Amino acid sequence: MSAPQQFIILTCKRVFALFHARNREFMRDRAALMWNFALPFFVIVGFAFAFTGKSLDQFTVGVIGKVPTTGFFETRYIDFIPVSSRAAGISMVAHQRLDLLVNPDSHQYWVNETSPKGYLAARLLNAESTAPYLQESIKGVQIDYVYWLVPGILAMNMMFSALYGVGYVIVRYRRNGVLRRLKATPIWAHEFLFAQILSRLWLMFLVSCILFFGLKILIHFPMSGSWLGLFLVFLVGAINLISLGLIIAARLRSEEVAEGVLNLITWPMMFLSGVWFSLGGLNPWIRKLAQLLPLTHVLEAARAVMLEGAGLATIMPQLLILLGMSVIFLAIGAASFRWE
Question: What span, in angstroms and rounded, lies between the C-alpha atoms of 176 and 189?
């Protein structure tokens, strides 16, 4: 057996030993294991009871072209969102990402036949307008808020599992002296990091699959797109979030500091990435800021596949952005990693 072959075999054995040890450590931590299952499950079940048959509280109206400032368009409690094209707006109305689409120049509006909020917004438009608007009906499925929330909760659970399961755990290893002892062994830093990524990736998929199919049986939420597309979204998203966790774990020695940094990263993503509410009604600058957060692209792609039946071509921009971020995060994490 040649020297390169022996090197590859020894590397694989060391990586597998680390992978197996991390898996057993996680499985033996019953509290962390149950928390990974219980939190998203009870959040979804709670929202299912609270919001069954209901949608978001505020009207969201898309406007083709410049938004006027008179009549219906100055109505309070309605978010008026500029839409780039009629085709894009009609798609958003069909999947109830918009309650109504209006073209002020041609005096037309598009409404989803199954949307109660769209019906009310259309009645209000006609009541407030001096010239009549021509209605164009769109057929689409009714998406309850709890169905819209499912991808967000699954992605949020992945985020916490990736960042705390990698970033916080490796910092704990460094503080307890585990990394110092590993440094004295033939294990290389890249082997240790690769094993941590594989272990967390496998555990995240196990937990996410159990939650996904358990919730699907419980609340029967729709799955309109391909399973392959959804698999790729969560695979690329999980790798991205784990890579981000490696940056945090690279040098920090204090668990308290690590927890503070993790909170600084997770809370903005939880509230600005669209987990709980649509980003459509937010300030344009906030929406631009949200595009810098990995979880935003995971959610956009996941909801497009699950709720809108989007194919790989549609979600490819989000996948490429996540892959690009992953390469940057991995390079920074690997270059800055220290055993002590």
Answer: 17
